[in-house]
Amino acid sequence: MAADVVVVSFGYGHGAAPDATITLDLRHAFRDPHVDPRLRYMTAVDRPVRVAVLRTPGIRSLLKSSVAQVQAFRQGPSAGQIVVAVGCVGGRHRSATVAHYLARRLRRRGLQVDVHHRDLAKPVITR
């Protein structure tokens, strides 16, 4: 069975955004865990990164509104699979965390969701 929604996390520093129905660009509006040397070489797999991202002002509101946006697209007359691309600079912290929690919230609403982390395993970008 094909997924209702595919959520792709990625880093703009590793390439262009993937084709998507909805693209969330987290680069400028949300604090980057990369600036904290303790978190820099961790990823969204690591709890301290997830906690830091989820505590960022506005992230929980973004998750809530993104769920509503996906649901609105699903109600459209020609609704098919929805692809949500979530990007930050490196694809290791903000985008991967938001992708994970967005998928979790959508699944709780009965949607079949696949998650792909395009750049999670790529090297840290030197800035």
Helices, strands, pairings?
Elements (H helix, E strand, L loop, with lengths): L4 E7 L10 E4 L21 H8 L4 H17 L6 E7 L5 H15 L4 E5 L10
Parallel strand pairs: 1-3, 1-4, 2-3
Structural overview:
- There is one protein chain.
- With 127 residues, the chain is an alpha/beta fold.
- The chain has one domain (5-117).
- 31% of the residues lie in helices and 18% in strands.
- It is built from three helices and four strands, in the order ββααβαβ.
- It has helices spanning 47-54, 59-75, 94-108, and strands at 5-11, 22-25, 82-88, 113-117.
- Strands 2-3-1-4 form a four-stranded parallel beta sheet, with helices on one face.
- The model has no long low-confidence stretch (mean pLDDT 95).
Strand order of the largest sheet: 2-3-1-4
Kindly give the count of domains: 1
Spans of at least 5 consecutive residues whose pLDDT stays below 50 are: none
The counted number of beta strands is 4
Q: Tell me the span between the first and last alpha carbons.
A: 42 Å
Characterize the main sheet.
4 strands, parallel
Mean pLDDT reading: 95
Instruction: Please tally the helical runs, counting DSSP H or I stretches of 4 or more residues.
Output: 3
The helix/strand class is alpha/beta
User: What Rg do the Cα atoms give?
Assistant: 14 Å
Q: What's the SSE pattern?
A: EEHHEHE
The amount of beta strand, in percent, is 15-25%
Fraction of residues in helix:
25-40%
Shape: globular
